[in-house]
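Could you help me review a protein record that somebody else here produced? Do not assume that whoever made the record got everything right. The record follows directly below this note.
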Amino acid sequence: MTDALAKVVDLGMVSREIYESETKKGALAISVMKDAVVPTVNSANPNIAEIRKVGLKKSVAGKLWNNEIKTWGEVLGTGSKVPVHVFTRSDACGAAETWASWFGKKQEDLAGTAVFGDPGVASAVQKDKVAIGLNNIAYVYDQKTKKPYDGLAVIPLDVNDNGKIDPEEDFYGDINTLMQAIADGKFPSPPACDLYFVSNGAPKNEVVKEFLRFVLTEGQKYVTEVGYVALSQSTINEQLKWLDTAQSR
């Protein structure tokens, strides 16, 4: 974002929503694809069966990443005294910002053991049986098997807040079912979000415009291959219309 606003680059890449303050400085964003951040746990967690049954409420997530919850019993509403170790990101990133926005916070509000990078958090959770972290889905699911990497599991989101994971909320078994849930809006936004290219003002370079047009058309077929969710046709049409308007300026 900083480089885009400074016109050091034609396009910057931003994995969070654009701030109003940035828009006022000239930032114009175009959606490229969708991603999502999910809460990750160790697949050998002693409470894994209950974790998959109960899931994670928004209110509980807010308390977890605010250092208010100390045991898995508090997470799940059970008598478990197993401690919970919370991991977050040490580097400024869209994943942590998007995750925090699910429960009305910002990245700097997140408490927990801070680890650098998505792979770092995933590795920390894999090594700690009582851990909970946050990861973009591309770092949770193996693109070959479509299943979570060894040692990782996803704690489902209790979207309707009824204390259990209903069949319509249970779509984390493989990356394809999760991506379909994101595309269908069954997985909430946030922590799902659009990923953007951003420029300072409408792009005027014809090569940049053609690149963006490629991304929104032929390029969409490559999105799922690398673990992201393609844009809906209505979003694509909206973005192409914006691009045509920018071209005519």
